Inverse folding.
């Protein structure tokens, strides 16, 4: 796969570590003597103002924006969006302006949710924020703000929510290549990759990259918002588009896209006891900080599935997509449950 063809700009700290999770592996196998051997791909360490999975996508998206001579990045996300924080950071890094539309998607009125965590960092990074009610047509808002920027003489580049178009997803096709190269170097045989799946670019990019290189490693996406049929359809469509950019759409088939959306709970960004339990468990077994919205929910699913025997005997890589900065937006929901 020839990524230079897409002229990414390079600022991520890569390759990210691929390392074992001895504590959680022991925790999950202790009682039955069975379960997965767990590894973790540390994309929480991609380096851009806290890092996370949006950084890899932004290398390609910024490359595209700069090629089009943009001077302003325009994007959107939920209030505690990690994508927004990383986009604000990328704009700062390249001397660009950043216009952000935040959707009050969870309906939370909590001070920490609305002001702390990623929001505080967005402002620190110099982005301009505006907030719209939950359920707003965010693509329409993006177009509106881009038009305002252009009217004022700016040159906007619109980055979709989560950075999830085929250009952004190239970042995760590249991650697939990086991960397989690391596994080969270490003599590690990966049976499954598990990732949170939301706006679909991460999951789709991984599927496309693995398919195009013929790696034959299944990916399990654990949904954080949409039901399974919708999520799988979104991921499949984007995986096809991404593989097409790489010149091999024919290598992606529908059966390669698997999402489990049984762990969403009450909805996007809403946490429950099992999410808090997952956050606490891996913090205490391996000193890994997950986030409440994505990786905590994915880990809730991974732990439940491991306990049901789903991964027995497998080597499973959990993709840590970042987001721990969002923990501070959930302080009031977390404190009192950390004992
Ligand atoms: C955005 C995000 C995800 C989901 O990635 P998508 O490409 O949107 O599916 C997972 N984890 C974290 C921490 C995120 O910020």
């Amino acid at each position: 796969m020839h990524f230079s063809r897409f002229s990414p700009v390079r600022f991520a700290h890569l390759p990210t570590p691929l390392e074992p999770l001895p504590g959680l592996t022991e925790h999950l196998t202790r009682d039955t003597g069975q379960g997965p051997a767990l590894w973790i791909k540390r994309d929480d360490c991609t380096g851009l103002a806290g890092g996370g999975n949006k950084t890899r996508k932004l290398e390609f998206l910024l490359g595209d924006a700069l090629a089009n001579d943009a001077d302003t990045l325009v994007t959107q996300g939920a209030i505690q969006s990690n994508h927004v924080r990383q986009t604000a950071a990328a704009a700062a890094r390249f001397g660009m302006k950043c216009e952000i539309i935040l959707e009050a998607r969870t309906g939370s009125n909590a001070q920490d949710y609305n002001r702390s965590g990623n929001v505080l960092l967005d402002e620190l990074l110099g982005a301009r924020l505006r907030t719209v009610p939950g359920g707003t047509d965010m693509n329409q808002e993006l177009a509106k703000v881009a038009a305002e920027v252009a009217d004022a003489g700016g040159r906007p580049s619109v980055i979709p929510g989560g950075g999830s178009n085929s250009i952004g997803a190239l970042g995760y096709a590249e991650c697939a290549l990086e991960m397989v190269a690391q596994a080969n170097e270490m003599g590690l045989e990966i049976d499954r990759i598990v990732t949170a799946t939301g706006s679909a670019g991460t999951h789709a990019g991984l599927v496309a990259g693995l398919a195009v290189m013929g790696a034959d490693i299944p990916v399990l996406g654990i949904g954080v918002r949409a039901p399974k049929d919708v999520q799988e359809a979104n991921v499949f469509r984007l995986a096809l588009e991404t593989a097409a950019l790489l010149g091999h759409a024919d290598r992606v088939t529908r059966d390669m896209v698997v999402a489990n959306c049984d762990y969403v709970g009450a909805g996007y960004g809403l946490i429950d006891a099992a999410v808090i339990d997952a956050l606490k468990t891996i913090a205490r077994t391996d000193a890994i900080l997950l986030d409440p919205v994505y990786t905590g929910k994915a880990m809730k699913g991974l732990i439940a599935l491991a306990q049901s025997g789903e991964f027995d005997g497998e080597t499973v890589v959990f993709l840590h997509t970042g987001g721990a900065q969002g923990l501070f937006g959930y302080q009031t929901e977390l404190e009192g449950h950390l004992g």
About this structure: The longest strand covers residues 97-104. Residues 106 and 269 are 6 Å apart (CA to CA). Residues 52-53, 82-83, 162, 164, 196-203, 291, 294-295, 321-323 surround pyridoxal-5'-phosphate (CB under 6 Å).
